[in-house]
Specification:
CATH architecture of the largest domain: 3-Layer(aba) Sandwich
Structural class: alpha/beta
InterPro entries: CheY-like_superfamily, OmpR/PhoB-type_DNA-bd, Sig_transdc_resp-reg_C-effctor, Sig_transdc_resp-reg_receiver, WalR-like, WH-like_DNA-bd_sf
Pfam family, one: Trans_reg_C
CATH class of the largest domain: Alpha Beta
CATH superfamily of the largest domain: Response regulator
Radius of gyration: 19 Å
Oligomer: single chain
GO molecular function, one term: phosphorelay response regulator activity
Largest sheet: 5 strands, parallel
GO biological process, one term: regulation of DNA-templated transcription
Protein name: DNA-binding response regulator, OmpR family, contains REC and winged-helix (WHTH) domain
Length: about 220
Amino acid sequence: MIVVIDERELVTEGYHSLFNREGVASAGFAPDEFGEWVETVADEELKAVSAFLLGQCEEGDIRAQRIRERSAAPLIALSERNSLDDTLRMFEWGVDDVVRKPVHIREILARITAIRRRAQQEAATFTEIGAMRIYFDGRDPEIEGQPLPLPRRERRILEYLASNPARRVTKTQIFNAIYGIFDEDVEENVVESHISKLRKKLREKLGFDPIDSKRYLGYRLADT
Protein backbone atom coordinates (compact mmCIF):
# COMPACT_ATOMS: atom_id res chain seq x y z
CA MET A 1 0.00 0.00 0.00
CA ILE A 2 1.19 3.53 -0.82
CA VAL A 3 0.25 6.38 1.52
CA VAL A 4 -0.26 9.84 -0.02
CA ILE A 5 -0.15 12.89 2.27
CA ASP A 6 -1.55 16.15 0.90
CA GLU A 7 -3.76 18.87 2.34
CA ARG A 8 -5.91 18.83 -0.80
CA GLU A 9 -8.49 16.05 -0.87
CA LEU A 10 -8.78 16.33 -4.65
CA VAL A 11 -5.09 15.41 -4.95
CA THR A 12 -5.23 12.38 -2.64
CA GLU A 13 -8.36 11.10 -4.39
CA GLY A 14 -6.69 11.58 -7.77
CA TYR A 15 -3.65 9.54 -6.79
CA HIS A 16 -5.87 6.86 -5.29
CA SER A 17 -7.62 6.51 -8.65
CA LEU A 18 -4.34 6.41 -10.60
CA PHE A 19 -2.73 3.82 -8.33
CA ASN A 20 -5.89 1.73 -8.45
CA ARG A 21 -5.63 1.57 -12.26
CA GLU A 22 -2.15 0.08 -11.82
CA GLY A 23 -3.46 -2.49 -9.34
CA VAL A 24 -1.69 -0.82 -6.41
CA ALA A 25 -3.46 -0.17 -3.10
CA SER A 26 -3.23 3.36 -1.69
CA ALA A 27 -4.61 5.57 1.05
CA GLY A 28 -4.79 9.37 1.28
CA PHE A 29 -4.38 11.56 4.35
CA ALA A 30 -4.49 15.23 5.18
CA PRO A 31 -1.33 16.19 7.13
CA ASP A 32 -3.05 16.40 10.53
CA GLU A 33 -4.83 13.08 9.98
CA PHE A 34 -1.60 11.41 8.94
CA GLY A 35 0.26 12.66 11.99
CA GLU A 36 -2.30 11.08 14.29
CA TRP A 37 -2.45 7.89 12.24
CA VAL A 38 1.30 7.25 12.08
CA GLU A 39 1.54 7.76 15.85
CA THR A 40 -1.20 5.28 16.71
CA VAL A 41 -1.40 2.69 13.90
CA ALA A 42 -0.44 -0.86 14.84
CA ASP A 43 2.96 -2.12 13.67
CA GLU A 44 1.36 -4.95 11.70
CA GLU A 45 -0.77 -2.49 9.71
CA LEU A 46 2.17 -0.17 9.12
CA LYS A 47 4.12 -3.05 7.56
CA ALA A 48 1.59 -2.98 4.70
CA VAL A 49 2.92 0.45 3.59
CA SER A 50 5.42 0.20 0.72
CA ALA A 51 6.02 3.97 0.35
CA PHE A 52 4.96 7.43 1.56
CA LEU A 53 4.31 10.24 -0.94
CA LEU A 54 4.49 13.74 0.52
CA GLY A 55 2.56 16.40 -1.39
CA GLN A 56 1.51 19.89 -0.34
CA CYS A 57 1.84 20.34 3.42
CA GLU A 58 2.70 23.22 5.71
CA GLU A 59 6.27 23.09 6.98
CA GLY A 60 6.38 21.24 10.28
CA ASP A 61 3.14 19.34 9.67
CA ILE A 62 4.97 16.05 9.01
CA ARG A 63 7.87 14.69 11.05
CA ALA A 64 10.19 12.58 8.92
CA GLN A 65 11.99 11.30 12.00
CA ARG A 66 8.80 9.85 13.43
CA ILE A 67 8.02 8.12 10.13
CA ARG A 68 11.55 6.65 10.10
CA GLU A 69 11.16 5.43 13.67
CA ARG A 70 8.13 3.39 12.66
CA SER A 71 8.74 2.42 9.02
CA ALA A 72 11.63 1.88 6.61
CA ALA A 73 9.38 2.43 3.57
CA PRO A 74 10.63 5.00 1.00
CA LEU A 75 9.59 8.61 1.56
CA ILE A 76 9.18 10.57 -1.68
CA ALA A 77 8.37 14.28 -1.94
CA LEU A 78 6.20 15.53 -4.80
CA SER A 79 7.40 19.00 -5.80
CA GLU A 80 5.28 21.49 -7.75
CA ARG A 81 7.98 24.16 -8.05
CA ASN A 82 11.20 24.17 -10.04
CA SER A 83 13.30 25.35 -7.13
CA LEU A 84 16.74 24.04 -6.20
CA ASP A 85 16.41 25.48 -2.69
CA ASP A 86 13.12 23.64 -2.14
CA THR A 87 14.61 20.39 -3.44
CA LEU A 88 17.68 20.63 -1.21
CA ARG A 89 15.52 21.49 1.80
CA MET A 90 13.39 18.39 1.21
CA PHE A 91 16.47 16.18 1.09
CA GLU A 92 17.77 17.78 4.28
CA TRP A 93 14.38 17.12 5.85
CA GLY A 94 14.90 13.41 5.24
CA VAL A 95 13.16 12.28 2.05
CA ASP A 96 14.64 9.57 -0.17
CA ASP A 97 13.74 11.27 -3.45
CA VAL A 98 12.13 14.42 -4.85
CA VAL A 99 9.88 14.08 -7.90
CA ARG A 100 8.84 17.15 -9.85
CA LYS A 101 5.23 17.24 -11.01
CA PRO A 102 3.67 16.48 -13.41
CA VAL A 103 4.92 12.92 -13.28
CA HIS A 104 3.45 9.69 -14.60
CA ILE A 105 2.26 7.29 -11.94
CA ARG A 106 4.44 4.54 -13.40
CA GLU A 107 7.54 6.67 -12.90
CA ILE A 108 6.64 7.03 -9.22
CA LEU A 109 6.26 3.26 -8.94
CA ALA A 110 9.60 2.75 -10.70
CA ARG A 111 11.30 5.16 -8.31
CA ILE A 112 9.82 3.36 -5.31
CA THR A 113 11.09 0.06 -6.67
CA ALA A 114 14.56 1.53 -7.25
CA ILE A 115 14.77 2.91 -3.71
CA ARG A 116 13.63 -0.36 -2.20
CA ARG A 117 16.09 -2.27 -4.39
CA ARG A 118 18.99 -0.13 -3.17
CA ALA A 119 17.88 -0.60 0.41
CA GLN A 120 17.85 -4.36 -0.08
CA GLN A 121 21.33 -4.60 -1.62
CA GLU A 122 22.81 -5.71 1.67
CA ALA A 123 19.82 -7.91 2.46
CA ALA A 124 18.57 -10.98 0.69
CA THR A 125 16.65 -10.23 -2.51
CA PHE A 126 15.18 -13.71 -2.50
CA THR A 127 14.54 -16.66 -0.27
CA GLU A 128 14.53 -20.37 -1.05
CA ILE A 129 11.89 -22.65 0.41
CA GLY A 130 12.28 -26.19 -0.83
CA ALA A 131 12.36 -26.11 -4.63
CA MET A 132 10.97 -22.57 -4.69
CA ARG A 133 13.04 -19.42 -5.08
CA ILE A 134 10.87 -16.43 -4.20
CA TYR A 135 12.07 -12.93 -5.07
CA PHE A 136 11.22 -9.69 -3.26
CA ASP A 137 11.96 -7.30 -6.13
CA GLY A 138 8.94 -7.93 -8.36
CA ARG A 139 10.30 -10.89 -10.32
CA ASP A 140 8.23 -14.02 -10.73
CA PRO A 141 9.21 -16.93 -8.48
CA GLU A 142 11.18 -19.89 -9.78
CA ILE A 143 10.56 -23.58 -9.18
CA GLU A 144 13.56 -25.82 -9.79
CA GLY A 145 15.12 -22.97 -11.75
CA GLN A 146 12.13 -22.36 -14.03
CA PRO A 147 10.11 -19.11 -13.77
CA LEU A 148 6.49 -19.43 -12.67
CA PRO A 149 4.56 -16.43 -14.07
CA LEU A 150 1.96 -15.22 -11.60
CA PRO A 151 -0.60 -12.39 -11.59
CA ARG A 152 0.40 -9.44 -9.42
CA ARG A 153 -1.88 -10.29 -6.46
CA GLU A 154 -0.86 -13.95 -6.31
CA ARG A 155 2.83 -13.06 -6.55
CA ARG A 156 2.50 -10.55 -3.73
CA ILE A 157 0.73 -13.08 -1.53
CA LEU A 158 3.53 -15.58 -2.14
CA GLU A 159 6.14 -12.90 -1.36
CA TYR A 160 4.32 -11.95 1.83
CA LEU A 161 4.14 -15.55 3.01
CA ALA A 162 7.83 -16.02 2.20
CA SER A 163 8.77 -12.87 4.12
CA ASN A 164 7.16 -14.30 7.25
CA PRO A 165 8.70 -17.79 7.37
CA ALA A 166 8.71 -18.23 11.13
CA ARG A 167 5.05 -17.50 11.83
CA ARG A 168 1.57 -17.88 10.45
CA VAL A 169 -0.15 -14.87 8.93
CA THR A 170 -3.88 -14.32 8.99
CA LYS A 171 -6.20 -13.59 6.11
CA THR A 172 -6.60 -10.04 7.44
CA GLN A 173 -2.84 -9.47 7.48
CA ILE A 174 -2.53 -10.73 3.90
CA PHE A 175 -5.43 -8.53 2.80
CA ASN A 176 -3.90 -5.44 4.43
CA ALA A 177 -0.55 -6.08 2.74
CA ILE A 178 -2.01 -6.71 -0.71
CA TYR A 179 -4.99 -4.35 -0.89
CA GLY A 180 -4.34 -1.79 1.81
CA ILE A 181 -6.08 -1.24 5.11
CA PHE A 182 -8.47 1.39 3.77
CA ASP A 183 -9.85 -0.35 0.67
CA GLU A 184 -13.58 -0.57 1.31
CA ASP A 185 -14.43 -1.63 -2.24
CA VAL A 186 -12.89 -5.11 -1.96
CA GLU A 187 -14.08 -7.85 0.38
CA GLU A 188 -11.47 -9.52 2.56
CA ASN A 189 -12.64 -12.95 1.36
CA VAL A 190 -11.02 -12.23 -2.02
CA VAL A 191 -7.79 -13.41 -0.37
CA GLU A 192 -9.17 -16.97 -0.24
CA SER A 193 -9.82 -16.90 -3.99
CA HIS A 194 -6.28 -15.68 -4.75
CA ILE A 195 -4.75 -18.31 -2.46
CA SER A 196 -6.85 -21.06 -4.03
CA LYS A 197 -5.56 -20.14 -7.50
CA LEU A 198 -2.00 -19.81 -6.23
CA ARG A 199 -2.20 -23.22 -4.54
CA LYS A 200 -3.35 -24.87 -7.75
CA LYS A 201 -0.41 -23.47 -9.74
CA LEU A 202 2.13 -24.38 -7.07
CA ARG A 203 0.69 -27.87 -6.68
CA GLU A 204 0.96 -28.49 -10.42
CA LYS A 205 4.67 -27.59 -10.37
CA LEU A 206 5.69 -29.06 -7.02
CA GLY A 207 3.43 -32.09 -6.76
CA PHE A 208 2.12 -30.95 -3.37
CA ASP A 209 0.44 -27.96 -1.75
CA PRO A 210 3.10 -25.81 -0.02
CA ILE A 211 0.60 -23.45 1.63
CA ASP A 212 -0.23 -24.84 5.04
CA SER A 213 -3.36 -23.36 6.60
CA LYS A 214 -5.03 -23.83 9.94
CA ARG A 215 -8.39 -22.41 10.84
CA TYR A 216 -8.20 -19.34 13.10
CA LEU A 217 -4.37 -19.44 12.99
CA GLY A 218 -3.61 -18.50 9.38
CA TYR A 219 -1.23 -19.48 6.59
CA ARG A 220 2.44 -20.31 6.19
CA LEU A 221 4.71 -21.78 3.52
CA ALA A 222 6.07 -25.30 3.97
CA ASP A 223 8.94 -26.85 2.00
CA THR A 224 7.52 -30.40 2.01
